């Protein structure tokens, strides 16, 4: 059974340490061979737009853009449907490889065999 990790990050620039921690855990899990699905919700939704992760800065942390690139290269990144709608974010606005999906898709991933879920 493959191991997988579903990470929901609810914080953005409003809580930079919590936000960066979620991206760091996602990238570390991928590096150790775990399948990762990173869900961007709330203020984290903005990081699905070009240039937003590059503008994020947290001292002594790996740049968020580098972490996002690692997840996009080997994992899955999803923006919450309602969060996107509240911010007027559409599929046309997103970085290539990011999708928009809702709670049913999150639940399906989070309860699949071998999955663990974390919320930041």
Q: Any overview of this molecule?
A:
The protein has 120 residues and is α/β, with parallel strands linked by helices. The chain has a single domain, classed as DsrEFH-like (Hypothetical Protein Ychn, Chain: A, 3-Layer(aba) Sandwich), CATH 3.40.1260. The protein contains five helices and five strands, in the order βαβααβαβαβ. The chain has helices at 16-31, 52-55, 64-74, 81-86, 103-110; strands at residues 4-9, 35-40, 76-80, 98-101, 115-119. It has a five-stranded parallel beta sheet. The two termini are 26 Å apart.
Portion of residues in helices?
Answer: 25-40%
Spans of at least 5 consecutive residues whose pLDDT stays below 50 are none
Question: What gap, in angstroms, lies between the N and C termini?
Answer: 26 Å
The side-by-side strand order for the widest beta sheet comes to 4-3-2-1-5
Number of strands: 5
Judged by helices, strands and strand pairing, the structural class is: alpha/beta
Please trace the helix and strand order, writing H or E for each element. Answer: EHEHHEHEHE
Please state roughly what percent of the residues sit in beta strands, choosing from under 5%, 5-15%, 15-25%, 25-35%, 35-45% or over 45%.
Answer: 15-25%
CATH superfamily: DsrEFH-like
| Distinct helical segment count | 5
> Which shape, going by the Cα principal axes?
globular
Backbone CA Rg: 13 Å
């Amino acid at each position: 059974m493959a191991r997988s990790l579903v990470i929901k990050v609810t914080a953005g620039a409003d809580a930079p340490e919590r936000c960066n921690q979620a991206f760091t855990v996602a990238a570390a899990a991928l590096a150790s061979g775990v399948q990762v699905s990173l869900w961007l919700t709330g203020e984290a939704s903005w990081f699905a737009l070009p240039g937003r992760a590059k503008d994020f800065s947290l001292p002594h942390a790996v740049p968020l853009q580098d972490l996002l690139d690692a997840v996009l290269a080997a994992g899955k990144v999803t923006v919450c449907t309602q969060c996107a709608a509240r911010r007027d974010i559409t599929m046309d606005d997103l970085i290539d490889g990011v999708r928009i999906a809702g709670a049913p898709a999150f639940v399906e991933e989070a309860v699949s065999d071998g999955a663990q879920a974390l919320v930041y």
